[in-house]
Amino acid sequence: MIGRIAGTIIHRAMDHVMIDVRGVGYIIHVSTRTAQSLPPVGEACALYTDLLVREDLLQLFGFPSLLEKEWHKLLTSVQGIGAKASLAILGTLGAEGLGRAIALGDWAAVKTAPGVGPKLAQRVVLELKEKAPGVMSMSADLTVDTTSEVIETDAPAKPARKPAPAATPRTNFTAEAISALTNLGYGPSDAAAAVAQASDDPEAVDTAKLIRTALRLLAPKD
């Protein structure tokens, strides 16, 4: 299994990129969001990859983080969601946006992805609602930089861009808040939905405030 490819970009398109690794060019299919975030041709790049194997076809799909790769694996486990539809959803919502949509049962957000109809969007939310909190709670560990430790090629490449942080503060807050709420005895799906809704509060700027806001949302209503 090819899990990660690092090298120099030699071709870019809206739905794929070619990365040269020691003279071998790997074509990697990516979402439009990922394609737009990649550096220019001639610069170093690394992507986490998932290999699709069929009798007459081998395709690599690339992701900027392990978190997004994990979401891709979950999406493609849903009947009717192939790799193309998965990339369309991730390209539209991103990993965090997808987690939020599923946690809140917002199938309309999933439906905004090109080629995804209402029935398929509803199926995604329904089938992944119980699985999504697990990925969301691990998001800080699965959001990692892919620009460092690029494999050296025979030809000198331009220096890689400054590495991005391993995880955004909001990603850390979300993961920690979900974990705390589940430790308090709340169900994973309820905890994820409350945290997703609480994240809209502008005052929820750290883990503690996010947890308090989510707890208010989870409190029994009179």
Short description:
The chain folds into 3 domains: 4-64, OB fold (Dihydrolipoamide Acetyltransferase, E2P), CATH 2.40.50; 66-135, 5' to 3' exonuclease, C-terminal subdomain (DNA polymerase, domain 1, Orthogonal Bundle); 169-218, Helicase, Ruva Protein, domain 3 (Orthogonal Bundle). It contains 10 helices and 5 strands, in the order βββαββααααααααα. The chain has helices spanning 32-37, 66-75, 83-103, 107-111, 118-128, 132-137, 139-142, 169-183, 188-198, 207-218; strands at 4-12, 16-21, 24-29, 44-54, 57-63.
Tell me about this structure:
There is one protein chain. This protein is α+β, with helices and mostly antiparallel strands and 222 residues long. The chain has three domains: 61 residues, Nucleic acid-binding proteins (OB fold (Dihydrolipoamide Acetyltransferase, E2P), Beta Barrel), CATH 2.40.50.140; 70 residues, DNA polymerase, domain 1, CATH 1.10.150.20; 50 residues, Helicase, Ruva Protein, domain 3 (Orthogonal Bundle), CATH 1.10.8. The protein is built from ten helices and five strands. The protein has a five-stranded mixed beta barrel with strand order 1-2-3-5-4. A hairpin with a 2-residue loop joins β4 and β5. α2 crosses α3 and α9 packs across α10. The longest helix has 21 residues. It is elongated and about 60 Å long. The termini are far apart.
